[in-house]
Amino acid sequence: MKFLRKFFFDGRNTFLKGSLIFLFFFLLTRLPYLFYYPVNILSNDSASYISAAFSILNSVTPLFDIRTPGYPVFLAKIWYFSESIFTVSLMQIIFSLFTGILLIFIFSAVYKKYAVVFACFLTVYMTSSYFLILESALLTEGIFTNVLLICAALMILSLKRDRNVYMVLFSVSAAVLIFIRPAGMFFFGIMILMIIYFIIKKYGVLKYISLIIPVSVMITGLCIYNYSTLGKFTITPFGEANLAGVTILFMETSDEYPGFVNQAIQQTLDSIPRKDKSYIRNSFGITKLFSVFKDNFHRQLQFAGNLMGEDTLKKYTDIQPHMRMVSLDAIKKHPDIYAKFFISNFIYFFRNLGIEVKYFDQLMYNYKRNIVDKRYITELDKKKWLQISSDRSMNEEIKKFLQKEINLQEQLNYIIVTDSGEVIAQETVLKNIYELYESFYNIFLRNTVWYLTFFAMFLFSVYLLFKTGFKNTDAVIAFLICMIFLAKALMVSLVESSLERYSYTVEFAVYFSVPFLLILTDNYKILKSNSKKV
User: What's the pLDDT at 396?
Assistant: First the structure.
């Protein structure tokens, strides 16, 4: 017991000890994929990122009507040297390794006593099966989550060290986060809270400039680019598609809409099971409501495709105003149903921490879908608008790329496809070790019990904030970490279905609650001791 206390809390060699713990489990969980099972992980979203990346590689002015530039630029830089999906996965794994080491270094600098504890819970977060699956996927989560971690760490560093250069870096990282995925805009709420803190602390104007100007300049630059290429001064015009997903079950035709809009609405509604449309109007079961909304959310793409019709010259930005109008009208007419959507998704955002996923089951599922069933090749053959780009000339190039990847994946030695089409991962020592670790992980770490420490941190930080007149920096940081999770939950629940891939990105806030409770306890003891002296 004495040895463990000394190892974790003596404050010596914290970077080295934390890094060794992190590296051991990082390699343990990545080696099976790298050595034996490098399966391509794709989704319906992947083609749109490939399309934008190919535009950049082909020196064609890319249209960011569907996607923001962050991830396509990342892909293009990698594919300039090696055009394969595995190379992307490998670089994302390396980026995760860099992120973990960087965070442990920052923790060692600002929270030396508890840096090893932070490293342990960072390791817990970054070795979950969800993290591993999405880290290897051709999706924004492959880098978004790492940039979000860096953003949070720079926020901690800037507040603890109180240097404007760190505040500038934090501001830049927040802009990069939004460039990768517009969902990063929830950080604007965190920045507003920081500005309130600056006002309370009576900071000089340079502090505000360091926080506000870098992110403002970068975001404005993106909006100007979109205005010059799309005619829209916006971060992304694709937001209306998400809102259409929210209202897809209760949107209605109207005499005020053009005929083709009413036709697109009716075509979409006719494809939805009648019982689903009835349930969201007449019932209040949270579990069933969430399931119904989630299962139909994807019909936003069908609605967009119906609006675009067979006109290959029509761009997404041409139908965007109609999608916005229909969605907002639906919310105005049925605020009660929209409230059901929000409440059910907000609750499920928290429930997701208790949902387990089997890593190898997911790998084999992706292999069957991508390689055996050739799902995305089939989708491209339909020649319909499927969230790829307004420029559908890229479809053939994407098809050739995916077919090349299929040919390579069919040669994997440790993946077995039976005569019935079942996909099996051949047994290896690394696979068995990983599955043993995953079983332990799912029992002890993948459950909602951890919210007890999270809400304890939230309440404790609020108590210390008021007790110290909002002058306790550690309480401010702990509160902001909590708000990262809550702000993301709020934003997702307003405009999207609360899938695990959206909530897992901020679950680090839950695991970090343990070291922050230790830090806040130390602060409380100091505060109590000082009050006794007075």
Answer: 84
